[in-house]
Structure formats: structure tokens, C-alpha cells
Amino acid sequence: MKGWNMATGLLVRVGIDSTYGWNAPCCEQSFRFCYVPIGEDANHLTEHYDHAYHQLYQPVVEAFVPEDAPRSVHWPHRLPRHGHFDPDFRNLTYGDVKNKAKRICEVFGANEKDKKFIVFYAGLRSILTGELWYSIIGFYTVKCIRRGPDVPQRDWPRNHHTRNGGCNDQDTVIVFADKSESGRLCKHIPIGNYHDRAWRVTPGLLNQWGGLDVKDGYIQRSAFLPRFCNGDQFLAWFWRQKPELICEDNPGRCLTLR
Known about the structure:
The protein is an alpha+beta fold. 17% of the residues lie in helices and 28% in strands.
């Protein structure tokens, strides 16, 4: 594996969800989807939401969702006052803070010679049925990880946490991905269903992956970032799915329903 000892990976939930007012749409027939980032604060949902949602994401969603789609899938009236536009698939970065940042550093700092990767998943809502899907939507091969204050000024525009003048918080980390093996998926890969009173990775997939270090594949919330028990086994499964990775949030050719 190009000189690596082994592969080490984390499963990270991203994207807007019902806590922040709405789930982004997907199609379970074509496996196309829209990526819409989460907000800063679930307690500040408003009709006067962050203008970036309106400029960057609303036109994409409205073009993707058919008029006769379930009401819950259409663009909502209320969203967070401030968006948190992370991960940034165009710039191939991802930032996090506090306990999640600590977890990233602990897992990826254990062995410098491991190949490191992050798998992004989201809760998406079907434009056909209105049902919820838990799916992989992005993948990063980690190039490097920097503490907020250590991010060079030239890289500040590449991530939400540093975009407006840098970041002085030592508890913030920014992940930079390797462009050759990273990006947003053109088609989402369903991984979960609701059983045992929570959303979990389906038992069959969990077995194919070699397991996660959370009980019974629990993925409903992401306060604790699950680690793949066998990173090499997961990567073998993932590349067999033949994912197409794109360095954009919502490229047009990934949104056609065919």
C-alpha cells in the first residue's frame, strides 16, 4: 500500500439535518443527491437565514427536486441564521473543534506511517418517498492535519474555520485532503437503516467493513466519531463500489436524475 503500514479511518456525519430544519434531497433510483452543509446553531432557525444558503445551495436543490416531490423534500422556509460550510469539497478541507478535534488527533496521531482517511456520511431525504436515507457522500485521503493557529495564511480561504482571518484556537483542527483520492461522491452509497431504536450501519455492511468501534454500528448522532476497526478491509469494500470523486460541492453532472 505505497509504503503504508495500515489504513486508519474515521466515519464523520456531515450535512444539514432535521435538527437544523431540514434534510437535503436524494434519489434512491439514480443515487444522485444534493450536498447542503449544516448550520452553526440549531437554536437560531429563521426565515432570514444565511444568504450563502440562498446563493449557493437553494438553486441547486430547486433544480433537483421535482414539483410533485413530497413536501418535506422541497427547500424549507427556515434555516440556520449562520451556515457552517464544512467540509469544503471544492478545497478538500474539513475542520472540527473540541472533542471531535481531539478524537481526530488521537486516532490519526497514533501511528504516523498509517494511511489515514475520513468517510463522510449524511442523512438524506428521498425525492420519491420522503423517506430518510443514511449514506456515504464523501471521502478524504488525509494529506495533513494542522491546528488552527498553524494553518498558513495562504490556506486560510480553504476552510470555514480559517476563512475570515485565520484561527487562533488550539482546539480547532483542519484536515487537508489528497486531491488524487478525495472528494464528494457523485452518487451516494446507502449504509444504514433504523433498527434497535436507532439508525445503524446495516449488519451485513458492518461485517464487510470489519466493524466500527461503536456499539452495533450506531450512526444516528456523531458526538463520538466512529473508527473503522479494520481500515484496510473497509477501503477494499469502498473501492469495489467504484465511487466517482469530485472536487466540488454540487457539480451539475452529479445532479442529473438519470
